[in-house]
Amino acid sequence: MSNATITTASLMALKQRREPIACLTCYDAAFAQLLERAGVEVLLVGDSLGMVIQGRPTTLGVTLDQMVYHTGCVSRAATRCLVIADMPFMSYATTERAVETAARLMGEGGAAMVKLEGGAWLAETVAQLARSGAPVCAHLGLLPQSVHQLGGYRVQGRDPEGAERIRSDALALQEAGASLLVLECVPSALAESLAQTLQIPVIGIGAGNRCDGQVLVLHDMLGLTPGRAPRFSKDFVAEVGAGTGFAAAVEAYLSAVKDRSFPASEQTLA
Ligand code: KIV
């Protein structure tokens, strides 16, 4: 593993040489160090922290101040990984607000990229952020911030119209200047075809093993999520054996992402 800092250019290079990109969510300095040492390339300070850290039923109550705080905790500890910060619910409802949000997440929080959820309607916002020097990760498929509009946490893009909408949104966001795409809970065939079509890397979660990389919520892959974890996730602590430690579980995740044995068929949605 090289000690070079991971940049958007490094992620493009990984895509070009077909080496899957390993990403995990991360919310604090201790785990940021552990994940960086294991060789994870991208740390996502996800607003999933509202659910796994704060115990909320959805991500909607997470504030920008909280995202800036957790992004700072992660970015101070991880100096090599590329740190992406989620823009919380409604913090990018207008382009002006999005620019102010990105300024805080990158300036105060130290993120190297910001992530927002939504389709072609965000193209102008993505373009303005990119022009202002803020690399953008788009997020399509299941959009947790839109859970009330979607009517639940459901697989997206199963029908031809839904799949076509995701495809055209992805192309519009790439065209607008997005540097990366997270694709959540879509059929693996759709994710594979998007990874082949787009120039930018596509990171999947519940999107099969033919994406350019994988992301999981850290607490799900460490078996720390109370209740039933999502079907597309996997408890890597259970796999390596409880008592072996979190570092061994993260190493097992990393190697399973790199050799595409994760996600396997049982974690893949059709
Ligand atoms: O908030 C988050 O953790 C995310 C991942 C589920 C991709 O957006």
UniProtKB/TrEMBL annotation:
Keyword check for Amino-acid biosynthesis, yes or no.
Answer: no
User: Which GO-annotated molecular functions does the record name?
Assistant: 3-methyl-2-oxobutanoate hydroxymethyltransferase activity; magnesium ion binding
Give the E.C. number(s).
2.1.2.11
Q: Which residues hold Mg(2+)?
A: D47, D86, E117
Q: Which pathway, metabolic or otherwise, does it act in?
A: Cofactor biosynthesis; (R)-pantothenate biosynthesis; (R)-pantoate from 3-methyl-2-oxobutanoate: step 1/2
Q: What is an annotated GO biological process for this record, any one?
A: pantothenate biosynthetic process
Keyword Cytoplasm recorded? yes
Specify where it is mainly localized.
cytoplasm
Per the entry, which co-factors are needed? Mg(2+)
Catalytic residue list: E184
- Pfam families, per this entry? Pantoate_transf
* Entry superkingdom: Bacteria
Q: Which HAMAP family match?
A: PanB
Its biological purpose: Catalyzes the reversible reaction in which hydroxymethyl group from 5,10-methylenetetrahydrofolate is transferred onto alpha-ketoisovalerate to form ketopantoate.
Q: Which NCBIfam families does this one have?
A: panB, PRK00311.1
Q: How does it assemble?
A: Homodecamer; pentamer of dimers.
Please state what the protein is called: 3-methyl-2-oxobutanoate hydroxymethyltransferase
- The organism encoding this protein is Halochromatium glycolicum
**Phylogenetic lineage:** Bacteria, Pseudomonadati, Pseudomonadota, Gammaproteobacteria, Chromatiales
